[in-house]
Amino acid sequence: MAINLELQVSLKDNSIGFIGAGNMANSLIRGLLAKGVSPDRLIAADIDTTKLETLASDCGVRTASAQDIAATADVLILAVKPQVMEQACRPLCASLQSRQSLVVSIAAGITIAHLQDWLGRHVALVRCMPNTPALVGKGATGLYANKKVSSEQKALAEEILGAVGLALWLDSEAAIDAVTALSGSGPAYFFLFMEAMQETAVNMGLDEETARKLTYQTATGAAALAASSDLSTAELRRQVTSPGGTTEQALNQFEQGGLRNLVQKALLAAQRRSRELSE
Fold this sequence. Notes:
57% of the residues lie in helices and 13% in strands. The chain is an alpha/beta fold. An eight-stranded mixed beta sheet has the order 3-2-1-4-5-6-7-8, with helices on both faces. It is elongated and about 70 Å long. It starts with a helix and ends with a helix.
């Protein structure tokens, strides 16, 4: 309990700047506010002034130029699209030279090496891969830090990303490609499966609203049960599957159709593409 309290005090005492005010920055800001961080400690910059004004109006955060944020914030969150990351980073290099700021990147495919080239070799950097359920406080994020990041800064980064869900440290930067394939892209896999379930349920005679609600609740319930249970998902599956019953018949179709192999191929393809983008 004392450790968590210490982390929260550290979080509240640091100023956190956001370069980019899109969906992920919005979710992080709202998560931090929900944890008790004062809006006075949060600063944002974005080339889209309308988006920035909306964020400031809704959340009460301060706004400033990216250079001013880099020169004053204790933590700098890089939340711009990967294709404009270099353009966003290079002007910040001079401001970061004389500071011990923590820089956190949430851009897919942008490596620590890239960031060091654009911001400077001395900068404390954390690269992470969150996912879209962070928008509703149910995110899953993998984090990796370079050697310049102190233990206190690692705790701070974990607390920030933990404001919108689960945040786990990775042993290597290469593991981010696996995280991208599993949880970064993962929500889309479940959406596709849910979409197929709803379509089939409608074809079987249910109305669309009923099919949608039952599908969402079934997915939510299954995930909650798995997360709260000490049993493996394999054992939970076996408990639902009565010999000769309806579940067994459905699962037999999945197995005969090669579902496991298809999932493996899909995740490996996503991991391979993540590596290609990083190069």
